[in-house]
Amino acid sequence: MSILKVARMGHPVLRTRARELERAELKDAAVQALIDDMIDTMHEYHGVGLAAPQIHSGLRIFVAAIAPEDEEPLPPDAAPLVFINPVITPVVSELVEDWEGCLSIPDIRGRVPRAREIRLRGLNRDGERLDMMLRDFPARVAQHETDHLDGILFFDRMRTFESLTFPDEYSRYHAKD
Ligand SMILES: [Zn+2]
Known about the structure:
With about 180 residues, this protein is an alpha+beta fold. The protein contains four helices and seven strands; from the N terminus they run αβββββββααα. β6 and β7 (about 130-135) form a beta hairpin. Bound molecules: zinc ion.
């Protein structure tokens, strides 16, 4: 397993639509190794989620340290969620705004509107169907990561850039929001 280089904003791979995987491709040792490396890379950089384009791969895969019922990120020793070919359907039209950051946009946070509740479908790394309802924090993470697979960054979703903030200023002025 290895730590991979994370693509930063400006790299074209972050603006390119990733492709679906065939279920048979999940039997490929290289794909499984890629998923393990994505998990290691996410943990190394203290991310809550990581999508394949962020490590220069054009496949529809994301990993996320989330659990459907949890408002907090999973600890690093818990197995993260691995989603292949994720498809999101908003359950209600209600949007909620909250803070996001991105390993591909280091040291900047901003407030992003997202659907409060979604249905998330796809495959796990063994090719089995996943189908879950997510609300609030895990729903936000899943939307952020799935956006990466369509070449969308969180800046694109912001209503205004007024909230853009560096980490020190975030801690000082906004952490309790
Ligand atoms: Zn991101």
